[in-house]
Amino acid sequence: MRLLHTSDWHLGRAFHRVNMLDAQSRFIGHLVTTAREREVDAVVVSGDVYDRAVPPLAAVQLFDDALHRLADLGVPTVMISGNHDSARRLGVGAGLIGRAGIHLRTDPAACGTPVVLADSHGDVAFYGLPYLEPALVKDEFGVERAGHETVLAAAMDRVRADLAGRAPGTRSVVLAHAFVTGGEASDSERDITVGGVASVPAGVFDGVDYTALGHLHGSQTIAERVRYSGSPLPYSFSEADHRKSMWLVDLGPDGFLSAERIDCPVPRPLARLRGHLEDLLAAPELERHTDAWVEATLTDPVRPADPMARLAERFPHTLSLVFDPERPPQAPDVSYARRIAGRSEEQIAEDFVAHVRGAGPDTREQTVLRDAFDAVRADETARESAR
């Protein structure tokens, strides 16, 4: 059986204020085309369909379009909710939608009840484990301690118990939304730490032929049979080195697995540039980034004038500007109270300007600060007099 594994669509999410809806729509078209051209038997979507619990209307419309296109294709789809989704909202109408071959699995209580599909070699049981918030599901699974590993292990016990009662040779696929030990995170994922622990060991998923993971945005192989598809689009500059893709997985008659990465279309490459502003504007080797979305970190010791406008002349798609000035080593840590002891309010303000910009205020700026403090003092005096 041939599976197409994807996750973390985050419909409705922007990229540094850039609307990604068109790019997300192109991805849905690419997904449907791939499923048709590669003769896929099932599509699995491992959570975070939406970016937030109450998605914007345009994202809901795109999701509705995706469901119709997958149903029209006649390829069964199994989909779980992630930590960004509202499980209750995503699961509305699941029974009716299931009649069209789109199987939404959002109820933790149904972890041990698979969607069973068949090919010429027999049955394949698809178990959907939606994102399991430990504090909310510990009673459902009868565990005393609310932790990611504890509740996932209990859910997998149900999976293995159901699988043991099925015909010999039944193959199995688990969809899960979790942070598995060994995975590489990015800045895009919402923290799911509970009690200081976010990750679960891959051994939790032992006993199934393939585990299709969601949550981490980088495509990666935790073990031969445990993989993240990653998000199909970038959602932070920490993903600049990601290759956005889906997994095309073949399950043989004995559960033997092979996997191929299918690249996803992205609107623009990402580039993270660092250095002095003049160097970034002049370096010929950076010409290849003129069409990229750019994050520029400026290391000038003094903040340059109009840096965003000047960068945009060369890199018109600059979206993020960070300042990390090169400065001499600092003196040993001294408390804030000691650093400002004996200094006037004007001096403290001037020090703040120097800290932020890399150079203190000039004579004109000192006058502005002094006048501002004089105005505040005058206002305070007037209020005291009026009491």
From TrEMBL:
Domain Calcineurin-like phosphoesterase: 1-217
Superkingdom field: Bacteria
CDD domains per record: MPP_Mre11_N
Domain annotation Nuclease SbcCD subunit D C-terminal: ranges: 267-355
UniProtKB keywords: DNA recombination, DNA replication, Endonuclease, Exonuclease, Hydrolase, Nuclease
Gene Ontology terms describing biological process: DNA recombination; DNA replication
GO MF terms, alphabetically ordered: 3'-5' exonuclease activity; endonuclease activity
Pfam families to which the protein is assigned, alphabetical: Metallophos, SbcD_C
Entry similarity comment: Belongs to the SbcD family.
Free-text function comment from the UniProt entry: SbcCD cleaves DNA hairpin structures. These structures can inhibit DNA replication and are intermediates in certain DNA recombination reactions. The complex acts as a 3'->5' double strand exonuclease that can open hairpins. It also has a 5' single-strand endonuclease activity.
PANTHER family: COMPONENT OF ATP-DEPENDENT DSDNA EXONUCLEASE, NUCLEASE SBCCD SUBUNIT D
Assembly behavior: Heterodimer of SbcC and SbcD.
Name assigned to this protein: Nuclease SbcCD subunit D
Annotated organism of origin: Streptomyces populi
